Amino acid sequence: MISDGARDQHGDLLPELSKSAKKMDFQKLLNVPLPTYNSKYPGSPFWMEFGYFGLRRTFNCIFRSLEITGAENIPTDRGTLCAAWHTNGLIDIISIMLSNPQKFVIGGRHDLLTRPLLGFWARKFAAQPVVRKAELLRGGCSEEDAINLNGRSLLNLATGISHGYSCALFPEGTSHSESHLIRLRTGPMRTILAAAAHAKSTGANSPVILPIGLHFRIRHKFRTDAWVEYGEPIQVPDENLNQDLVDAVKNGNWAEPPAKDVISLRDKLELKLSPMTPAKETFSDYRADHIVAHMRARILKTPLKSWREEVIASREVRDNPPSKNTLQLSKQIGDRLYNNGLDGRDLNKNATGLRSFSPKGVLTGSAKIAFGLVMLPLILLSQSLQIILGRLIGDSTDEGEDARVSFQFLAGMFGSLFIWPILSISTLLILFIFKAKIYSTYGLDWLTIIGQSQIAQLILIIAIFIFNIYSYWLAGRAFAWGWDPLSDVAKYLRRLKTGSKIKEDLAKLRNLLE
User: Fold this and answer.
1) Contact of 221 with 60, CB cutoff 8 Å
2) Sign of dihedral through CA atoms 282, 284, 289, 294?
3) Mean pLDDT of successive 10-residue segments in the chain (514 residues)?
């Protein structure tokens, strides 16, 4: 999305508003359900559990590899504010929610609550709407309305945190495409300070901030690699909290925390969070660090085996950079590989060229493709509409590249929730319609396989319905598993095309690093 050049009072570019973000139904936002704090769930128990179930089933298909580290830093005796940089739309919040054992009170952009399908689920999760500075400055609502709505939402989130729930807020205030943190807003800090004040008023443990690194190899690609990194918690001291703030939140009123406390906490978070991002001027510079990391690992005969190891090794390069010439050459190599759909993993074991293929990979890949071919009819039946819908919406959205996978994810999840039950019921109807034909052809009365009674027949019908749903899910996994070796074959062909063009530069880089 191209910016129109509008800036806020700090001189930062305002994000362009999508069509959805421009549609603000203020009265509907005022009527969203409020969280409850007296049970395990801040929203509807049934719909939240069903929502988590649907999220997990889809989430497990979109990544080729997923690592979660630092889970021991998540406290179990108090609430937490999860704070991360924000470059991958809804996938960011989903990654945090599904990797954290605590239930969440959710705050999000106002149109999260008013979209046709997504809004239903958001309201069942008791999500609270937030009006960003961009909507306010672009005339989406009056300043008074924004202050009232945001104050109510932040108070609800703070109260939820003080009761032991988690909350994920992104201090940059918007999903973006930069390779570093953009200016941090104060909303999350004001929320956690209010949560600490509420906890103090009730005698609960003071909440903490959890800085989180969200690392995606290529965020907008299906079956990319991901690493969710929980950092060490930032303590929110409650001994010097402003008493007016404590009294206000205790009585259910929003009050602004002192500015000095907000700024101090924001600076602490930025200091912790920035190293957990690429923290480079451009992604081209970031790719250069990865090339150096891979080259060094191959020289030392200790190849990087996972995306997490690769990110950590690139940090070492970032924090202890080699010579300017080395970085310039690695940037040139990284850009050429990236433009051909390759990366540092494609270097051969001696880093003298690009690798060939792995015999072991051929065997496992062939097995996955064979399984996919066996499941192909079921894949086409149960997955085609979601895939087409996800591509159409994801590739045409005005939300930007950072929202591409979000829409594909939603198409996959919501499509499955609606389409698979219809397909399963249709299968049962076909069995009923052709019941006599099946009996005359095969001598089988399928409805009485497990018994003649109505209860036995009902159990069979339910079992067939559930089996069909499971089969559709397995078809989805077969599609994902089959996609990986096909991608590997395509990468092998690209390596054959690119190898000779990059061999000389690789030799130069190796000489510089040895």
Assistant:
1) no
2) positive
3) 50 56 70 89 94 91 95 95 94 95 89 82 89 59 75 92 95 92 93 95 95 95 95 89 90 91 95 97 97 96 96 97 95 96 95 91 94 95 90 73 80 90 95 92 90 93 96 95 95 94 94 92
What is the reported pTM?
0.89
d(CA 210, CA 219): 22
45 φ, ψ (degrees, to nearest 5) = -55, -45
Give the domain extent around 339. 283-351
Cα–Cα dist 271/331, whole Å: 27
Number of domains in the chain: 3
Whole-number Å distance between alpha carbons of 324 and 292: 12
Q: DSSP labels for 171-229?
A: TTSS----SS--PPPSHHHHHHHHHHHHHHHHTPPPPEEEEEEEEESSTTSTTEEEEEE
For residue 29, being part of any structural domain is answered with: no
Query: CB of 287 within 8 A of CB of 334?
Result: yes
Give Cα separations from 470 to 92, 110, 368, 473, 475 (angstroms): 27, 35, 19, 5, 9
Residues 201 and 158 in one domain: yes
Question: Which are the contacts of 217, defined by CB distance < 8 A and separation ≥ 6?
Answer: 224, 225, 226, 307, 343
Q: What's the rounded Cα separation, in Å, for the pair 331 and 348? A: 18
- Rg of the chain over Cα atoms, rounded to whole angstroms, equals 26
Residue type, 291: I
Whether 88 and 111 share a structural domain? yes
Beta-carbon contacts of residue 404 (< 8 Å; ≥ 6 apart)? 89, 220, 394, 395, 397
